[in-house]
């Protein structure tokens, strides 16, 4: 089965073709970061309009890269949620149009399921079961993953998501958008021990997260600084923030491994591309004797390849949606169920 995957849940237009036997055949991504940078964050209406402009030409280029036409596809998958309603509807409309026009099955994909399955696109994919830590601009959660569609939510953020805290910190310090790469770049020249920032909710049991206090601590440091725009100050504060975030995420992930007895950890989502996080997690996993899996950095952020793969796995198992499938802005991961038949 050859599956076209379409991702338009937020501010990136991702298109890919995945083959059940040959793997990923082609993929392309258009980022809207330049469109939204002037506003310091994603403007939903602008995101929707840019997806409309980009989705069809990008699909044509991906098919050309793969040496395929629309008639060569066996199925179509598009992100159905969670995400921005207007943005989601662009990808869903395109996906359903292609599938309907060619008489192919269509599936609406859960965006978070696609993220946690993204490491399966690599040469050394993780086996089930594993713990998944998903950290992005919109979500931070820990889940026990027993198989396709078999997810038990262990903990989640009670306020800001991890990536959202990066973005807000960057905005507080005047570093621009997107915040994650901007903070990481500034942190490269800073001292991670310069400021004693909190590691929220790590001193008590449980696997939930809270990052609003960390952001508030950054604001307090900036307000009380003698030279808040000094390059060295900003670098030290970014390095301290990044280290506090990474340590908080690791403490919770290690706790999830211990509580479940599992020995595999998957880290996905945009924050998973952070180099300091990868370094810290690799050291921690080695100490625990646990296996650690990341998608390649390009597949940590939103992309069409993960949608094509996740949708393809379910389409191969015989699952498909009707033409009345619509977008869902909020869609808890643990509402998913496995397909009736999972291929070997």
Question: Can you put this structure into words, describing what you see?
Answer:
There is one protein chain. With 344 residues, this protein is an alpha/beta fold. The protein folds into two domains: 2-117 and 299-335, ATPase, nucleotide binding domain (Nucleotidyltransferase, domain 5, 2-Layer Sandwich); 128-294, ATPase, nucleotide binding domain (Nucleotidyltransferase, domain 5). The chain is 41% helix and 19% strand. The protein has ten helices and ten strands. A five-stranded mixed sheet has the order 3-2-1-4-5, with helices on both faces. It has a five-stranded mixed sheet with strand order 8-7-6-9-10, with helices on both faces. The radius of gyration is 20 Å and the shape is globular. The mean pLDDT is 96.
Q: What fold name stands as the CATH topology of the largest domain?
A: Nucleotidyltransferase, domain 5
Instruction: Please tell me what the overall shape is.
Output: globular
> What is the top-level CATH class of the largest domain?
Alpha Beta
Number of strands: 10
Radius of gyration: 20 Å
Q: What is the fourth-level CATH superfamily of the largest domain?
A: ATPase, nucleotide binding domain
Give the terminus-to-terminus CA distance.
15 Å
The number of distinct helices, counting runs of at least 4 residues, comes to 10
Strand content: 15-25%
Low-confidence stretches: none
Structural class category: alpha/beta
Instruction: Output the helix-strand order.
Output: EEEHHEHEHEEEHHHHEHEH
The main pleated sheet reads as: 5 strands, mixed
User: What helical percentage do the residues reach?
Assistant: 40-55%
Number of separate domains: 2
């Amino acid at each position: 089965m050859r599956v076209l995957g379409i991702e338009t849940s937020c501010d990136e237009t991702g298109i890919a073709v995945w083959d059940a036997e040959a793997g990923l055949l082609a993929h392309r991504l258009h980022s809207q970061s330049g469109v939204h940078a002037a506003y310091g964050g994603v403007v939903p209406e602008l995101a929707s309009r840019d997806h409309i402009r980009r989705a069809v030409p990008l699909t044509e280029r991906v098919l050309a890269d793969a040496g395929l036409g629309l008639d060569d596809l066996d199925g179509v998958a598009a992100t159905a949620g969670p995400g921005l309603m207007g943005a989601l509807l662009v990808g869903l409309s395109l996906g359903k149009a292609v599938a309907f026009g060619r008489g192919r099955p269509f599936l609406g994909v859960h965006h978070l399921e696609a993220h946690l399955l993204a490491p399966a696109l690599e040469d050394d994919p993780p086996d089930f079961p594993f713990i998944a830590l998903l950290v992005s601009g919109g979500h931070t959660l820990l889940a026990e993953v027993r198989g396709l569609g078999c997810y038990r939510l262990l903990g989640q953020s009670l306020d800001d998501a991890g990536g959202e805290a990066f973005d807000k910190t960057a905005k507080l310090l005047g570093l621009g958008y997107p915040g994650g790469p901007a903070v990481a770049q500034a942190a490269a020249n800073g001292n991670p021990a310069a400021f004693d920032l909190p590691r929220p909710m790590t001193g008590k049991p449980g696997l939930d997260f809270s990052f609003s206090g960390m952001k508030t601590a950054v604001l307090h440091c900036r307000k009380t600084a003698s030279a808040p725009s000094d390059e060295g100050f900003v670098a030290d504060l970014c390095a301290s923030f990044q280290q506090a975030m990474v340590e908080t995420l690791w403490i919770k992930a290690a706790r999830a491994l211990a509580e479940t007895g599992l020995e595999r950890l998957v880290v996905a989502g945009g924050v998973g591309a952070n180099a300091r996080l990868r370094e810290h997690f690799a050291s921690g996993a080695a100490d625990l004797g646990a296996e650690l899996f990341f998608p390649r950095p390009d597949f940590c952020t939103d992309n069409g390849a993960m949608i094509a793969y996740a949708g393809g796995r379910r389409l191969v198992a015989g699952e498909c949606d009707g033409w009345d499938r619509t977008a869902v802005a909020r869609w808890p991961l643990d509402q998913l169920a496995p397909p009736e038949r999972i291929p070997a």
